[in-house]
């Protein structure tokens, strides 16, 4: 009996590897190795958690947006992020995990979310820096993920990338306006740049040499570019955007390398990165407490929706 099962397992693996090799997309109904499924649940759920937690720093500024137009744009962006979270939770659920399990993993710290959302948004310029730098980094990462091997994830990325470009543009517009403004506004924008630049570089993950998941991610074509490749892509385009509006990149070691065609950057503070993703960043506690409170406050909505679904089911 054991040999028969073994033979079936081997056949599943051979078919799966053939599809990956051919560049076919893997769909929920396809048989897949457990490792592939687990890797995707880990990455997609953490991506979804990041989108939803990321609504908090920006949400704090809705009532303090400087104009009605700015408020409308911020509201639209935050609403988009909530939708991105839903697409991604939906994609994760196709792998056989429930929404409640995903949320429980977030609340117990078993699942991570992006380091970047554990920093406070102190001034209006932070909303510009978040849109321009954080969404700018997310776009570089997500454009690459449009070609990920798992179909539902790839299709979610195509949809999300369309909305991210608006997020990045509105952030850059805020920074450009402030840099064309008063001295105080310019100082506020540069201060935000100084606080958000390095955590944005950390968003791409550890250097390739210390990325434990990248090996499988490339073997299974989940990742199509490495952490460092995407980080370089982000730096190269963002440095030029900063120069156009007169912002200074807070990295004294930043220099153009004619040979590689990329900017070289200073050392990233990986001690800070690991401290933040271990739960000891400036806002981790606040972010989680808020998410748990709002999730519990919304319990009655979930129960009502479930009761309605069951009633409809009984009627049919
Ligand atoms: N924040 C928190 N944890 C991070 C991280 C970050 N920026 N970068 C890496 N990590 C974690 C990984 O999750 C992994 O821990 P785990 O094994 O417990 O999950 C560990 O550090 C080692 O990193 P690896 O490079 O080996 O892990 P990955 O191969 O998963 O690569 C990644 C990390 C590049 C972030 C990859 O997971 C990825 O591309 N994820 C999808 C994109 C994403 O999650 N973006 C988050 C921001 S979403 C956003 O900004 C929304 C925008 O609209 C505002």
Q: What is the beta-strand fraction? A: under 5%
How many helices? 13
Average of per-residue pLDDT values? 97
The portion of residues assigned to helices is 55-70%
Largest sheet: 2 strands, antiparallel
Number of strands: 2
Bound compounds: 3-hydroxybutanoyl-coenzyme A
Shape: globular
The sequence of SSEs as H and E is HHHHHHHHHHEEHHH
Describe how the helices and strands are arranged.
Elements: H1 2-22, H2 34-53, H3 55-59, H4 68-93, H5 99-107, H6 124-145, H7 151-179, H8 183-202, H9 214-219, H10 227-245, E1 255-257, E2 262-264, H11 270-280, H12 284-297, H13 299-315
The protein binds 3-hydroxybutanoyl-coenzyme A.
Residues 42-43, 46-47, 50-51, 54, 81, 84, 112, 114-115, 134-135, 138, 141, 164, 202-206, 211-214, 217, 227, 277 line the site of 3-hydroxybutanoyl-coenzyme A (3HC).
Brief account:
It contains 13 helices and two strands. With 316 residues, the chain is mainly alpha-helical. It has a two-stranded antiparallel ribbon.
Task: Explain how this protein is built.
With 316 residues, this protein is mainly α. The chain has 13 helices and two strands; from the N terminus they run ααααααααααββααα. Strands 1-2 form a two-stranded antiparallel sheet. A hairpin with a 4-residue loop joins strand 1 (255-257) and strand 2 (262-264). Helix 2 (34-53) packs antiparallel against helix 4, helix 4 (68-93) packs antiparallel against helix 7 (151-179) and helix 6 packs antiparallel against helix 7 (151-179). The longest helix has 29 residues, at 151-179. The protein is globular. The two termini are 42 Å apart. The chain binds 3-hydroxybutanoyl-coenzyme A (3HC).
